[in-house]
Amino acid sequence: MTSGGDPVLRRRRGSARVAVLFTVLVAGLVVASVASAAVGQFDIPVSQVVGSVLSRAGLDVLAAPGDPFAEAALWDVRFPRVVLALLVGGVLGICGALMQGCFGNPLAEPGVVGVSSGAAVGACLSIVFGWTFLGSFTTPALAFCTGLLTTLAVYVLARSKGRAGVVTMILTGVAVNAVAGAAISFLVFAGDQAAREQIVFWQLGSLAASRWVHVATIAPLVAVCVVVALLLARRLDLLALGDRQARHLGVDVEVLRLVTIVVVAIAVSAAVSYSGIIGFVGLVVPHLIRMITGPGHRVLIPASLLGGALLLVSADLLARNAFDYADLPIGMLTALVGGPFFFWLLLRTRRREGGWA
């Protein structure tokens, strides 16, 4: 037997590849997060950023910023934004992996089931009609509720004879997304100039308004999403064998899909309610991770968490510093990366499968 065909050697190589991947992702996250906190219109030395964090932890190893303005900029503006970028990016990465595993399609992403467009409808309603019954939380709360309700509506409409087929659910999601898009267009038409500008900015995605209270709101939902996703990992691996084979192995396919979709709906609705629509993270990250580690979800899910967080915090760093005194919409940057990647993925799928039929 050749060394390349030795299963033990292959497992060792696979384990080493996974270890290197996680090391790179964690190191990249630390570097990108510190850089994002340090770099801006008001630069703060990296040593002082690290010193400020260690000082809050009770370790006076490095000097914290002596300027109260720098300290306030770090803890009131930049750190909340960095942490929210990590949470939103991580949850989008995980949900992309869940959707691709649930539908058995590498082209699937959370927006397929209407969660992002549904959340946009709720946000637009709040903006156009000026609703403030929950104070500053009105727009995020409505975005969360409508995103969740839209996703559940897609699942209910796609069910037939007690089952929700993959193709039917995707097509239902396309139809619901179209209806949501029409509703958004009508609200843009009905709103005044200020509302239109706010809607456009929200749809492009931004983390500019990040605060610690936002982090505290979505962090528990992200934590639940991570735990449930890891618990579903083995059954998603079995689902990759096909619905019939998974049922023979004891997997309740309908319950698995329902739980997966509910988790994705809750997590993504919570994320986009504060960040606006940020596309392609859930498409690009899981597929890249899968190309490196293989399809096993017990590795894919935590790696997608780290990869999504790394991608979004890096994109936010670029969005804040690409132009002086301007904050680019982060959804625009992820689309600039994700669009060409999606096109390449389509071409690659067509070549491998010999056509679209």
TrEMBL record:
Signal peptide: none annotated. It is a multi-pass membrane protein. Coiled coil: none annotated. One of its GO terms (biological process) is siderophore-iron import into cell. The chain crosses the membrane at residues 79-99, 111-134, 140-158, 170-191, 211-234, 255-279, 330-347. One of its GO terms (cellular component) is plasma membrane. It comes from the Bacteria. GO terms for molecular function: transmembrane transporter activity. Pfam families: FecCD. The keyword Endoplasmic reticulum does not apply. The keyword Membrane applies. Its main location: membrane. It is found in: Cell membrane. Keywords: Cell membrane, Membrane, Transmembrane, Transmembrane helix, Transport. Belongs to the binding-protein-dependent transport system permease family. FecCD subfamily. This is Iron ABC transporter permease. It comes from Prauserella cavernicola.
